[in-house]
Amino acid sequence: xxxxxxxxxxxxxxxxxxxxxxxxxxxxxxxxxxxxxxxxxxxxxxxxxxxxxxxxxxxxxxxxxxxxxxxxxxxxxxxxxxxxxxxxxxxxxxxxxxxxxxxxxxxxxxxxxxxxxxxxxxxxxxxxxxxxxxxxxxxxxxxxxxxxxxxxxxxxxxxxxxxxxxxxxxxxxxxxxxxxxxxxxxxxxxxxxxxxxxxxxxxxxxxxxxxxxxxxxxxxxxxxxxxxxxxxxxxxxxxxxxxxxxxxxxxxxxxxxxxxxxxxxxxxxxxxxxxxxxxxxxxxxxxxxxxxxxxxxxxxxxxxxxxxxxx
Length: 311
Ligand code: BMA
Description:
Layout: E1 13-14, E2 30-41, E3 44-53, E4 58-65, E5 72-73, H1 84-89, E6 90-101, E7 104-113, E8 117-125, E9 132-133, E10 142-147, E11 156-162, E12 172-176, E13 183-187, E14 199-202, E15 207-209, E16 212-222, E17 227-236, E18 244-246, H2 258-261, E19 269-276, E20 281-288, E21 292-299, H3 300-310
């Protein structure tokens, strides 16, 4: 029997076409395309991709696909005028997450402000041609905001990752009456594991199931050479999402393949977008080594079952 590096028992299964999109698939000269927001739009899978040009400035291009695997990329980036604060201080926006909510699409993202740190921003769109800012940015340091796709007990809700005092961070949930003012924040208590010992943060937008909110998240373990990024899954209470119903100790994806271990940032699998396909398959779009767009899949019922039986 021939030994192989890939672990066949990881719950998420990589698509054989990986990486789905690479710098050479983009309409502009670029060094990386990764960390895409993902949503079902107009009967297709739509990705909002972070495309880093050769100055390492970010542009956000759309890619659409009928089957979730073969994508057509927009020539022009989506327009998103800068807020006043961003005009003065913005270095880069990144990690866009798309939430369908109340008949429109909200896009949450990180904005890195030179001299201040990382803030969360929120925008909206109906057509994915232009993004319009919703209010101002959060104060630093906050990132990975993922808006829930419906109000919870009359309030908007989001997962987020404020920075801890030592530079690490954990997942919190907070609420808002109007998408502008956020508060009533509560931490989410996940099991301590070796693969999540340094940081954890929200990943894809929560998926509603009758058993709870299914949330795929990322976590980081530093070692003597690198910071390795993993994906995990947790199930949160539908009414009080700071309550963890299940959180398996095992990760569901780790960096193993060359396109996850070699690139701009080695040993990274990072998601900010998942789509439940019409056949019940969860398509998790993830960035490989901060360089390319990849796909890993698992049937929704298996993901839920894993949560409920392995926790
Ligand atoms: C995080 C984010 C992600 C990135 C990851 C690994 O802090 O900035 O965009 O994929 O680091 O570099």
